[in-house]
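In keeping with the milestone schedule agreed at the kick-off meeting, the structural modelling team has produced records for the first pair of proteins. Each record is given below as a sequence line and a structure-token line. The laboratory manager (R.T.) confirmed that both were archived under the project's standard naming scheme.
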Amino acid sequence: RDKRTAKSLVVGRPILLALEDIDGSPSFLEKALRFLEKFGTKVEGILRQSADVEEVDRRVQEYEQGKTEFGSDEDAHVVGDCVKHVLRELPSSPVPASCCTALLEAYKIDRKEARISAMCSAIFETFPEPNRRLLQRILKMMHTISSHSNENRMTPSAVAACMAPLLLRPLLAGECELEDDFDATGDNSAQLLAAANAANNAQAIIATLLEEYENIFDDENLQRCSISADSRVENSGSEDSSDDENPDMKDNGYHDAENEASPDTDEDPSRVLSGKLSESSGYAGSDLYD
């Protein structure tokens, strides 16, 4: 199984390729999420009721062997556990430790309006873009499921209890507890309390994100996030560009003079190199034009 996982088209993929393949087509995970949104909303206990492990492994293997679409007649519980399996096998947590801490700090705020605002800021300001997209996509599926709780018996809290341990791994691993939380280095009872506290916090955070999904992931926030991401890319590009650092380079004639130099020049290569170095240092009187 380890060898198959190492070469798998489904499990162990990096966060960047969790939702789509290199060619831009939807991944196994994305297709499974779409299936649950379409066929899983009326299935009682969806995401809570476990499927047979062998059936989950078999469905993953079938996908890798060419059965790359989910049919309407498939067992929703198997597909739901496929989603969990993929998330569990991601090489890194969907929500990194620093982002878990930011969410936890925001969740601890007493006043609801301030708490939701802080959680929103934590997501859009501290998350790497691939992680934010993945979290939002998983939450979208969970929100769709919980919005049909009258039929499937899965409230936001129930859905959160099933999925929070997979999404907020570092929180449950004790990697981002706040100073006033239980001391996980104490005796067994203290560690049990810390673990229970972390699990409760994780469930509550995800449940809150589900309940406030439409407010947090509204068009305004997504647009702001898109603009922020674009500006980061532009800033990164300008930092790497020597032309941007020296906007007057082309105006002072150095580059033009270099371009006008005859390609058949008999100058000694070392002297040409020296001339170019002199130009880049700002000395116009280089021996390139002696």
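The second protein of the pair:
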Amino acid sequence: MAELHSPFLLPPGSVRPFDLVYDGVTQGIEARIADSQAPLSPGGRAWLARLVSGFQAERALWNDRSELAAYRARWLLLRTRALRLAAGAYLHISYDLPRALADAWPGSAAFNSLSEAEGEAIYEGLAPLFTDRFHASARRYAIVGIGWPIGYLSPGMGGWIVNWILLLREGAWRHGRKLASQPAMRPLRESAMAKAMTAALEDVSRIFPWDASLLRPPVFAAPLVVSAFSLLAVLMPILLVVALTAYLAYRLGREQAWRRLQEGQFMALFAAILQDYMEAAVNEPETFDQYLAARRRGGPGSPF
């Protein structure tokens, strides 16, 4: 395992929001494997167990993969738990998941005790588990901080973002099939997929002048505190204290609401751009660099 002194390696705090959600999903899958009443054949249980093992192996290598160095560097610029959760979830779903699926593609020589149709049915049957765990994560401060509305707005912003996660997961199945069906092309495709991950995070970071608290150090807190205490030192009447407290609460609420809205926009745009880039990387890996250059110059479907 790589040492954490490098500026391009992820410290535990940056990945903890994702790891907490990921652990919950893993526990849910393992519970289904262990449930004798679950509609799973012996081959289906063995396949799920192998996927869980593959996912865990991929997660353990995030800091060791040189092809993800630029993605990690961008990830380290994200300041909020919700955005760090998105960075981990999207990497896991769009990069790790297709490759783990390809390593154990049902019906192939890698795993011939389960047909592709059976594997796809099991895979689709797990979608509600992802949805439930992601909604539940919104209620945990350690994962998304204070006031994130995913778990409380349905089918509003929260449902919208979860829908993007499910769409990326659908794409992961298609991409896993492509990787498994053409092993000679797999190294080229995986290289393009890593580029797509980094490019999507880079481009969503530049597409809009995001709030400073999302991507840069905040610059507004200290002057507000100083001016408030200066005012209280001169004017002590209780009514002024109450009025000032109410005003600060109002401002804080407005600022938090604005930041949460921008977080939601960032996560949705990130997913939309990533979906497009990953489709191009998997389906046309030979020309992905040209595709990306054209998109960034403002060609059809440009994110800018």
